[in-house]
Amino acid sequence: MKEDAQVTTWVWNPILRQYLVNAPHRMSRREGSSLCPFCADISEGRVTADMQAWLHPNDFPPLLAPMGEAYIVVYSRDHERIFSQLTVGEVTLITKLWRDLYCDLSSRYPAVMIFENSGEAIGQTQCHPHGQAYGVSVIPSTLERELDTVVQEYIAGRGCLFCRVRLEIEAEYQVAANKTWQAFLPPYARYPYETHLYPRRHVADLAAMDDEELRDLAALLLHVVHGYNMLFGGTMEPMPYMLGLHQIADERFHFHIEILAVGRAPGKLKYAASSESLWGLWTNDSSPLQKAQELRQAIIKSEKE
Ligand SMILES: [Zn+2]
Ligand SMILES: [Zn+2]
Ligand SMILES: [Zn+2]
């Protein structure tokens, strides 16, 4: 088969009992080209003057219907700004777009992945600020594992484990919080500055979130990312990270966001190397308690500036 034909297939790994996506046409996707496809949405009139954030079909989709669908979530009209430079109001519009997109995709697919690969170190190929979203016809293994945990806890009569984790996490691990959300660096962090954001209310997914919660989420996301950029006197800015929204349309599930910040020290990245990639055994060469304290202080400092 020619590599430029757009065809995607699920391939079952019988050993690990999980699917992977095969999408050979993506090998020829443009990387860092000077013609920005998202700026072209504006110049060619595909988005109206009042639209700050919008969806762009993924031109090199890793998933095609009925396997799934793939979209780009364009964050801003301004090619040069990155997520951390957006205002709370602008990020709130993005969270509302996420909610609309989730409602749409979850009507057709059992799993919706909304995420951002931020920074060249993560393989971001277009600099215009954007994230991505997939509707997926199978449940990815990490989400399946989280759902399995949730179901087992309910069956055992212990209620929501996420709610318990949120309530019982010691204050030393918390890095920022507001009225409806809490952010913490868990003792089981895989990356030194990995941060988890939980809504205080038990909600399964974005569909159940109200506008106030989305605005608080926008503010908290910005606090955390600003804090990252303030670490080590700003020498890690912009901190490369992977950000993912974990949610599923099952009332027992607890919506949350995980941010895997890949920087561990100025000029140094944490790689998922042999131990992590070949065995799934993660090593964290730092003290989560100390990193939580550093990040909390960096967030406070960034709020003052
Ligand atoms: Zn652009
Ligand atoms: Zn819960
Ligand atoms: Zn999760």
Account of the 3D structure:
- The chain has 305 residues and is of the alpha+beta class.
- The protein has a single domain, classed as HIT family, subunit A, CATH 3.30.428.10.
- It contains 7 helices and 13 strands.
- The protein has helices spanning 37-43, 88-106, 141-155, 161-168, 211-230, 274-279, 288-304; strands at residues 9-13, 18-22, 54-57, 68-74, 111-118, 130-136, 174-177, 181-184, 195-199, 241-246, 256-261, 263-265, 268-269.
- The strands form 3 sheets. A 9-stranded antiparallel beta sheet has the order 3-4-6-5-10-11-9-8-7. The chain has a two-stranded antiparallel sheet with strand order 1-2. A two-stranded antiparallel sheet has the order 12-13.
- Strand 1 (9-13) and strand 2 form a beta hairpin.
- Helix 2 (88-106) packs across helix 5 and helix 5 (211-230) packs across helix 7 (288-304).
- The longest helix is centred in the C-terminal third of the chain and has 20 residues, at 211-230.
- The chain starts with 8 loop residues before the first strand and ends with a helix.
- The mean pLDDT is 94.
- Bound molecules: zinc ion (3 copies).
Q: If strands are numbered along the chain, what order do they take across the biggest sheet? A: 3-4-6-5-10-11-9-8-7
Q: Major beta sheet, specifics?
A: 9 strands, antiparallel
- CATH fold-level assignment: HIT family, subunit A
- The ordered H/E elements are EEHEEHEEHHEEEHEEEEHH
Radius of gyration: 19 Å
**What is the CA-CA span between the terminal residues?**
55 Å
Q: Uncertain spans, ≥5 residues at pLDDT below 50?
A: none
